[in-house]
Amino acid sequence: MTGARRSLATRLALVTLITTAVIFFSAAGAMYFKFRVILLEAAETQSAEVASATANRIAAGLNELSGLAHASAYAMASRQLPPGSDELEDFLLAVSSSSANIRGIGVSYEPYQALPDQRYFGISAIQTANGPVIMPHHDDPNMDSYTRDWYQVPALTGKPFWTNPSASLFDANRLITTFSVPINSAAGEFIGVTVVDTELSTLTDLVAEIELYNTGFAFLTSSNGQFVSHPNENWIMRESLFSLAETLNQPELRQLGRDMQRLRSGFRPLPPGLLDVPAYIHFVRLPSVDWAVGVIIPEHELFADIHSVLRWVATIGAVGFLVLLLTTIAISRGITRPLLSLVSSAGEIARGNLDQALPPPRINDEVGELTQSLDEMRRSLKDYINDLTATTAAKERIESELKIARNIQMSFLPKRLDLGQAEGLVDLRAKLISAKAVGGDLYDYFIMQSGRHLYFAVGDVSDKGVPAALFMAVTKTLVKGFAETADQPNEILRRVNDELAINNESGMFVSYLGGILDLDSGQLQLANAGHTPSLIRRANGEIDWLKLPPDLVLGVMDGFEFQLNTMQLAPGDTLMLYTDGVTEAADVGQRFYGEDRLLALFSSICTESANEQGQDRGG
Amino acid sequence: MIRLLLLALTVHVSAFGHAAESEPLQLQLQWVPQAQFAGYYVAADQGWYEEAGLAVEILPHGAAISASRILAERRADVASMYVTQALGLWDQGHEVINIAQLIHATSLVLVSLAERGIETPEALDGQVLSRWPGFELQPEALIRNFGIEPTVIDQGATMTGLLSGAVDVAVATEFNEMHQLYLSGVDADELNVIRFSEHMPGFIEDGLYVHADVLAERRDALTRFVEATLRGWRHAFAHPEMAIDAVMRRAEMASQSTNRAHQLRMLETLRTLYTDVEGELLAPSLNAMDYEATGHVMYQQGTLSRPAPAFSAFHDPLSWPDE
Questions:
Q1: How many domains, chain B?
Q2: Which residue of A has its CA nearest to B260?
Q3: CA dihedral A452, A454, A455, A456 (to 10 degrees)
Q4: Which residue of A has its CA nearest to B160?
Q5: Does residue B157 sit within a domain?
Q6: B160 touching A (Cβ < 8 Å)
Q7: Same structural domain, A407 and A429
Q8: Same domain, yes or no: A72 and A16
Q9: Pairing outcome for strands B96-101 and B207-211
Q10: pLDDT > 60? residue B13
Q11: Domain containing B144 — which CATH number?
């Protein structure tokens, strides 16, 4: 439980909102892009129609002129209209009046072709405010007509030619374009060109009139990319797509210009430079002349509808998110409030307060079930702890009683040997450490009534605990009692056995090794009731197991006669008696202490005093 | 207020430096207002001619106005023209002296569409070649030197003949028409260019010319004029945008249809013709070898009825050391 944790309510709200947002934005985005494509296609179609229609109308206007020019060239070639004749002038005046689009029509002949003594001959009929007038051309050395595009290109290529628009000589604000057609004589010889001038305003007006959406517009470029018509009048006949590309360092604009020169039509995002906002352009090249019409639609207008829809969607989405947020918080609060109260109750339980009942659940949902479970747990815990308290009290009582029993048992055992007059003849030490609080092992020693005999014994009751202790106490008491009247250990054991075997309903028995040492002679009498062999070290250092006939343990069968074993001890001999509690003591690895280790231990300590031998030994 | 102060300052400088009143000087430039003349416009706009004690009047100039004719008729004190035009005046009996050579090379080239594969002078054989009337000398010399036979015709003011396919090869200047082509949508790799400078010496371009007697009388004023002009050119190359502002204003006044992109490119090409590799303005002296090569070709081709005058008679470097 760190400070950085988020509450369940927050996480739930967060996850719900994020998931919903992802779904919402994916859906809105998909819709937006789909609609964009549809709108873009519609815009392409619409702008293509507008551009094509405009191009066709311009082309139609130009075609009318080119038709007139071709017809005139044909008439000139027929020699019905000789240079300088009235017929030629009348013809030119008539043609110049035949179309509102004609500003002038003229003819220019090859050097000395029209008149033998005149290098240059040319004549035009020009539209004026007062009607058409005839205007002969002058042979200007600075402006040789033969080097002008309108003459030179048809003269050299034999094909008609539209010049690039140029400012009128009479009015720089009026744009003139010229269509010239080569005149070939009947013999097929090139003799001059027929020229039709038109003022571009009528054609460029067509382009200027175009309005698409709110601020969409169209422009017209000539074959060299120059603006012939554009809303920005400063650009007309000054800037081209290429000069703008250069000034603005926009290579894409140059590519657009080149494509407008080369491709029939195209639709694409408008490169930066022509408009400050993102836009699309559709361009169409005119069919008859290498000019192009470009139609520009600002993107924000093109997508105005979808943006309006998107705003609606966004508004609905925002409100929806708010509602969702509040709902999620409300629901999660409904879940977490009982949980929080549960957390508080669980905290109480954790602190050990098991008496306070949990609040009953309002709704029977998962939280309600959890509350019930927790309450059951609380009750179980309470019962368990009550039981535990009782058990612990009982155990403590038992332990206390065992402690008393042990004290009693230990009090049975002799504390020290009072040898009286025999002091210094024998060195004896005994020690009992029980595995349980109260054990079944016993030892015993006392000076017999004669005062010259030492009785000693080691026994092991078949069971452990209080019953074994009692059994041991009985055995010891019996031995003490019979030792007053019997003077041989086998006799003592026989009588004790008979007493124990009678009414031995518990079925317990005791292995027992009893001995009487004559302190004067050193003669040792031993009787063994099924006990483990003892170890003896002779004064000469010889160590050996003192193997005795095992006979029968005490308390199993009455009337059993135990054998008497007699041996002579010499001064300095050491005898060690023990119970199998030593050899069968197991370590953590369940390995017994064993007789070999006991033998080794005995070898190392047998020369010490009995008191020293009785010290705690590690291992 | 600032203008008034400036005027006062100018008068002050003039009073100490030279005469109390500015000395009038009329300048004739040989083509339409464009970056080709940016140095003069900048010097005038910055008031450096006034500072030099000169009231320089830049006379109207354009395609239809012949600077050499204006100078011949003494309607201008100084004129900008090519060596060839000045030698033409000598042949007519006008002793016009080169007082400063500004462009030390010829920028004239022969340009063709790359698809025609005309990469060397030899490949011009049999092609239709157009050149401007008045620019016959270099193409003719090239034709004779390489022994080729193109069909030579007069060229108009536009590059339409080339682009429409009416002619195979056209003359162009690197600083003007080559940029015009680029700004008509033609990429550099779509063109083949033969540079006259790579095939023959001479025919160097813009220099300043005065009549010999005018030079004798007004040597000091002309020296100050050339100094101020060079300062104008230095400033123009150092501040191209500002120089193009000056150019565009004059083009506008002359109803000359052009655009910044074109003029800026032109100025950058002129920089390579006016300056050395470090960008320093070249000394305004005429190279004798270039001069003599030009005179030789002109006389050889019959453009001059007599040999060109001696270099020392033609070029007076004023205060600048000869090369």
A1: 2
A2: A247
A3: 180
A4: A149
A5: yes
A6: yes
A7: no
A8: yes
A9: antiparallel
A10: no
A11: 3.40.190.10
CA A344 vs. chain centroid, Å, equals: 33
**The total number of structural domains that make up chain A:** 3
Distance CA B168, CA B187 (A): 17
Give the domain CATH number at A372.
1.10.8.500
pLDDT at A141: 63
CA angle, residues B65, B56, B8, in degrees to nearest 5: 150
In a domain, A444, yes or no: yes
Q: Do B154 and A148 touch (CB under 8 A)?
A: no
pTM score, two decimals? 0.65
Q: Last residue of a domain, which of A258, A273, A302?
A: A302
Q: Which of A144, A157, A254 sits opposite B164 (nearest CB)?
A: A157
Q: How far apart are CA A430 and CA A576, in angstroms?
A: 10
Quote the distance between the C-alpha of residue A252 and its chain's center: 43
ipTM: 0.84
| A225 inside 8 A of chain B by CB | yes
Chain B residues 291-320 within an 8 A CB cutoff of chain A = none
Residues 6+ apart with CB under 8 A from B155: A147, B130, B131, B132, B133, B161, B167, B170, B171
Identify the domain boundary among B198, B214, B243: B198
Q: Worst-scoring range by mean pLDDT, A335-344, A555-564, B217-226?
A: A335-344
Query: B175 with B101, same domain?
Result: no
**Same structural domain, B224 and B310:** yes
* CA-based torsion, B172, B177, B179, B185: positive or negative: negative
Record the tokens describing residue A39, joined without a space: 């709108």
Which strand (E) or helix (H) includes residue A297? strand A292-298
Q: How many Cβ atoms are within 10 Å of A92's Cβ, its own excluded?
A: 25
Residues A376 and A511 in one domain: no
Q: Half-sphere exposure (CA, 13 Å, Cβ side) for B292?
A: 6
- Residues spanned by the domain of B161: 108-198
Q: Is B163 on the interface with A (CB under 8 A)?
A: yes
In a domain, A359, yes or no: yes
Residue B12: which pLDDT band, with cuts at 50, 70 and 90?
A: very low
pLDDT confidence band for B16 (50 / 70 / 90): very low
Contact B164 A246 (CB under 8 A): no
Chain B residues with CB under 8 Å of A167 CB are 255, 257
A178-213 tens-digit pLDDT:
999 999 988 888 999 999 998 888 778 878 887 777
Judge contact between B138 and B75, C-beta under 8 A.
no
The boundaries of the domain holding residue A120 are 1-302
DSSP 8-state assignment for residue A118:
B
